[in-house]
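Support reply, case 0932

Customer input (verbatim):
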Amino acid sequence: MFPTLMGTVVIAGIVGYLSEKTGFTHNGILQSIVICVGGAFLFYFVSIMFGVGFRAQGWNAILASVGALVIVPTHWRR
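Our regenerated output:
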């Protein structure tokens, strides 16, 4: 369980960094990483509790990170 959790954090951090570098978001690098890690943590624990998601935890981390970036539109705030 612990290696899976650390892998989720690493994948979410990479997704947050890449989303900022490619121009998908305009939040800032640190903010995008924090949003992705938060979304991945949330989905990781929901998938453990309720058994939803894919079998591969990596796909869960990627989709949860992108979903969190789409749901939290901080680039609209001033």
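We compared this against your earlier run and they match. Two observations from our side: The mean pLDDT is 89. The chain has one domain: 2-69. Please reopen the case if you see a mismatch on your end.
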